[in-house]
Amino acid sequence: MATTKAQATPRRWGALFFIGLAQLMIVLDATVVNIALPSVQRDLGISDGDRQWIITSYMLAFGSLLLLGGRIADYTGRKRTFLIALLGFAGASALGGAAGNFELLLIARALQGVFGALLGPSALSLLTVTFPEPKERAKAFGIWGAISAAGGAVGLLAGGALTQYLDWRWCLYINIPIALLSAIGGQAMLTESRREGKSRFDIPGVLLVTSGLVAIVYATSRAESDGWGSANVIGLLAAGAALLAAFGFVESRVAEPLLPPRVVASRTRGGAYLAVGLAVIGMFGAFLFMTFYLQIVKGFSPVKTGVGFLPMVTSVLLSAGGLTTRLLPKVAPRALIVPGMLISCVGMLWMLRVEADTSYAGGVLVAQLLIGFGAGLILPVALNYSTHGVDDGDSGVASASINTAQQIGGSLGTALLNTIAASATADYLASHGPSPATARQAVVEGFATASAWGAAIILVGAVIVAILMNTPRPDQDAEETDSAEDGKRAEPSFAHP
């Protein structure tokens, strides 16, 4: 089948603004609602046992449907999928903001996850095809990586301000103007691209991977309350692993797989997926621990907590926008990702020095600057190379793969580190006895123990990426290298209506 290579669109930098705005909305939504949870619970009369579903319903839909969302974008048109997803996300946000009861809010959050699973892969694949020239692509992915890394902290600031000065419902309503502006701009600036020719959806693959990811994401959400050793959690994890193994078997034998094995078999792309999956364990853990430390131990208000995260945002922007974009076209990817993971690891270890009476400047601030700087080295590079050398027709599902790695890594990491922190806190209280001072120090001990585990996971990831990701510098013949490692393959053509 003939191939038509993607050409640089004349309005590509304007398109980047609107694609980035959509990505910011997705990342914001991962944290902006979290900080409003106490207010939501009081207003709607939600029990302690049910409140987790406000987060879990979104995570289940979003994490389990990403691969399907990427394939829909490839087959039906990335611009079309992007615009439909934006309008659907806005509608779901409006429904959630107006919800008068827990059940309606739950439906709205699940719908947000469904449309988010369409939006994330289509946005990233649009970025890939909009910037085919390596140097410009490096700048574009630097901006994209900064948005992805800093958006969570911005979400905490926005969530705190909206909840404290307006109402928790605005944590959902805020998505509406963002989505509509991005849709209007996207309609004007973006060029359609899709896989040409007739394509059939891999229904067995869809069912297997969706149910497998649902089982794993749900297991991690239950682990925080039931414990990792509970029968339910172990059974769900085992079922999820079995379903994903069956998915891998099916994908190697069907004519048009949902996730072609060649997409993940590449050492370059596999290293990128692994880097993101392991790095977000530490970053998600850091957000969780620092938020609770600042509010519970230091007594910060929600807004002050959000402001306290601004140095991390600045560090990410300086690293991703000022350094990574300059180096990305000139050095091998692991020359940036591995140092970034090591710097983030040191940031996690810095949390071991934090005590209940440690000043903000001497404790959390240093950890934020290190973790943020490391994230700015990791994410733009990993996102750029997540579609490196892939068939044009597979860019949507390749984009979905790194989104899935991020989602699963974040879900597993948050649940695992939170469980470790809770266990360490309980052990400290049991050995030192209950008192106000002991309670504050017990929280700190829990966070320190979990941070050490997070640092160890990131360090192991750095070692694996250093060995696995052997991609040469971009100025070498990278295309030939990837052709050799992926094997000969047919490339589908591109349609640009």
Automatic annotation (TrEMBL):
Domain of life: Bacteria
Topological relation to the membrane, as annotated: Multi-pass membrane protein
Protein's name in the database: MFS transporter
Domain Major facilitator superfamily (MFS) profile: 15-473
KW Nucleus (keyword) present: no
Species the sequence originates in: Actinomadura fulvescens
PANTHER family named in the record: BLR6921 PROTEIN, MAJOR FACILITATOR SUPERFAMILY MULTIDRUG TRANSPORTER MFSC
Subcellular location: Cell membrane
UniProt keyword annotations, A-Z: Cell membrane, Membrane, Transmembrane, Transmembrane helix, Transport
Main location: membrane
Transmembrane spans: 12-33, 53-70, 82-100, 106-129, 141-166, 172-191, 203-221, 227-250, 271-296, 308-328, 335-354, 360-383, 450-469
Upper classification of the organism: Bacteria, Bacillati, Actinomycetota, Actinomycetes, Streptosporangiales
InterPro entries with a match to the protein in the record: EmrB-like, MFS, MFS_dom, MFS_trans_sf
Location of the region described as Disordered in the Swiss-Prot/TrEMBL record: 474-497
Pfam families per UniProt: MFS_1
